[in-house]
Amino acid sequence: MQSITEAELTRALERTLVRKGKLPESDARATARMVLGYFGADGTVLDNKLSSEDRDRFYQLEEEGLLTSEEEDATVSRGKTWRIHYWLLRKGRIRDVGQAGDAPPPDEAEAMYKSINEADWKRDVPPPPGR
Predict the structure, then answer these.
(1) Are 25 and 15 in contact (CB under 8 A)?
(2) Number of domains forming the structure of the chain
(3) Cβ distance 84 to 74 under 8 Å?
(4) Among 28, 34, 107, 110, which residue carries the largest CB count within 10 Å?
(5) Is residue 126 part of a domain?
(6) Is position 46 within any domain?
(7) Sign (positive/negative) of CA torsion 22, 94, 59, 27?
(8) For residues 6 and 116, which has the higher predicted lDDT (pLDDT)?
(9) Residue-number span of the structural domain to which 63 is assigned
């Protein structure tokens, strides 16, 4: 499958993490650039290459289905086993989410609150006596 572009990943981030309020819109492009910087032309990246801050972001992307992780056991000298954890781009999911019209529906509660106009939020209740 063809490589994911920065624009595709940015759109997917805007339609997942930004829409849910987990990522400021101004950070979407920088986050896409950071993620693709780790992956390069590959579809996988070793977990131990990530900074702890970037790893936290990768876990958020995994929650949204844009990344997935896998583990593999490798036998090293003297029969010792090491577990290798790595991340994979879910290119098909990123493209699906990034396509116009395929965005997940907005949260119903959020839509309800946004539909209430500003005047309805204000109360004109006098303070209790004695204050």
Answers:
(1) no
(2) 1
(3) yes
(4) 28
(5) no
(6) yes
(7) negative
(8) 6
(9) 6-117
Q: Are 8 and 94 in contact (CB under 8 A)?
A: yes
Please answer whether residues 53 and 59 qualify as being in contact, where contact means their C-beta atoms are separated by less than 8 angstroms.
no
- The distance from CA 18 to its chain's CA centroid, rounded to whole angstroms, is 8
Using a cut of 0.85, tell me whether the model's pTM lies above it.
no
Strand partners, 85: 71
Q: What are phi and psi of 7, to 5 degrees?
A: -65, -40
CATH number, residue 77: 1.10.10
pLDDT at 101 over 80: no
Compute and round to an integer the Cα radius of gyration of the chain. Answer: 21
Q: CB atoms < 10 A from the CB of 27, how many?
A: 14
Q: Which of 11-20, 28-37, 51-60, 91-100 has the lowest mean pLDDT?
A: 91-100
Alpha carbon distance 19, 29 (integer Å): 14
